[in-house]
Amino acid sequence: MADFTKNRSSGGETVGALLARNASRHGKDVALREKERGIWKEITWAEYAEEVLACAAGLEKIGVKPGKAVLILGDNRARLYGGMLAVSLLGAYAMPAYPGATLEELRHFLGEVEIVAAIAEDQEQVDKILELKGAGAQGIDHIIYDEARGLGLYEVEGLMSWDHLLEVGRHDLDKSPGLRDELFGRTKPEDPAIFMHSSGTTGQPKGIVLSQQNVFAAARNGHAAGAFDENEEILAYLPMAWVGDFAITVAAALRWRFTVNVPERQETVVRDMREIAPTFYLAAPRSWDQMLTTIQVGIENSTPFKKWLYHFFMDRAVAAETRKLNGKSGGLLEPLGRLLGEAIVFGPIKDQFGMSRLKNAFTGGEAIGEDTFVFYRALGIKLRQLYGQTENSAINAIQSPGEVRLHTVGKPAPGVEVTIAEDGEILVRSDSVFEGYFNKPEATAEALEGGWLHTGDAGHLEEDGHLVVLGRVSEVMHTAGGERYVPNYIENRLKFSPYIKDAAVIGAGLDELTAMVCVDFEAVGHWAEVNGVPYVSYSDLSQREEVATLLREAFQRVNKALTEPLRLQRFVSLPKEFDPDDGEITRTRKLRRKVVQERYADVIAALYDGSKEVYVSAQVTYETGEVGKVERSLPIREV
To answer: pTM (2 decimals)?
Structure first.
């Protein structure tokens, strides 16, 4: 168990104090780079602090104050990050939302707290807010936009550019010379840093306000655990509404003076990463899987000699890394092979994908496949796993470089205490734990009962302190025969296959386990092209018998790791992906199990009644917002 007494002193750290420190002591160092029209533009700590101060003064002028909120809406932009810090300086709530948030989701946010202003990325996000207001939503009297393109002819009261907001703020700063220092010192550690939301897998997302003490405690805990060093180079590409982005891109960056690189667009992330070559990189397992698929596709499309070279060195490196993870040592010539492989194969691959300087690489959010994990470590990237939640500012446990195991998430970070309840739930205590759900006293009392954060995750601590996470406590289910299982655990292992994007395991109260899966269109589509399998759409591809063979192999691999009563017996490949716009998964791609089971009730029934196929009419939401249906007969396939 971690020592909870370590690393607890905050030293009065606040957004204002740390921003002032960085501006005064490291003012010429680069705080951010942002790519615009192909050119990286640098912002020093001194310049960044001045812009945040001007933004804070401007926001205060239009009514932002403690108890009020500012909506942050859009993809990653330097100004949106600066806006979040400015809101924190005022003691108000900075509330980031996913760029793809629906009007209904935004309307829910408006019902929680008074949102007096919004900082929007571009015309698309401004239009979304105006549509929300046009539908009768109250609040958001001021909209500040970053990208001016398309907004020149808009005549909307309260709509202003970022530059105009800064002009207003600078006027007040110049008029009141003491305002700069007053803004830097206005807030206390217990004041809000960010207003985030739970994923909402079982209902409406709950508001989670993390204090400045919470987020900087997590930044210290992560540093003490070896997750990151001072002066890291990072790429800001994760969704701004996800706690992992705020914990690293804002809190840790401010505390440990990272240089934050903001890509031009989400579509250019891979290219921009290659140009930056970050030293720290956090990605969900799906991102690591996609990069691995891209590497393998590139190798298969290269010359026979290059393919031979790749497999000669990579196969040996994978075998060596597997031995190491199993506690075995290699042969005397292994270091020489590693050195040659680095020069000929591994180094060029890492350079191509912007990983040549990577010192701290992490995956989190869900379990990662063994093949993917071992591949990157064989490549020379010391990939590690971390475990955290929004309620704990993203950092609970972290694997250390010398203690990496496939089945654990490492030991609790310094400053984090972990224990296991009688029912197997993981409990956490730390300065990084939030004070409770916003205006939800009953949910707060339940989550923080006994002074511990009840994570809702099932797991156990091994004798040497490593934490094993099994899945959600609420999802511990039993078959009709009384066999205990966690569907999320099995679903994650199905998704280790590059051909399966999402899965829903069925079986509670039933005799057998079955599953519905959604294929990964990109990976399966490429496989189909290479192997000459024709298709015209996702719906068509998902039902091909050749694709069913790929899926069956994935099921059979998972079944080998399961006890006989829990082995999957049948499956259906759905004709569309699970989509957050259809309410089937959250914005962080967590399954909304109740919605899925209700929507696909006929499919589930067919999996158990001996049917050979089932007709399905599935809801699909298009990019235009229009709702349609995908209708098709689906074969019921035996594993």
So the answer is: 0.85
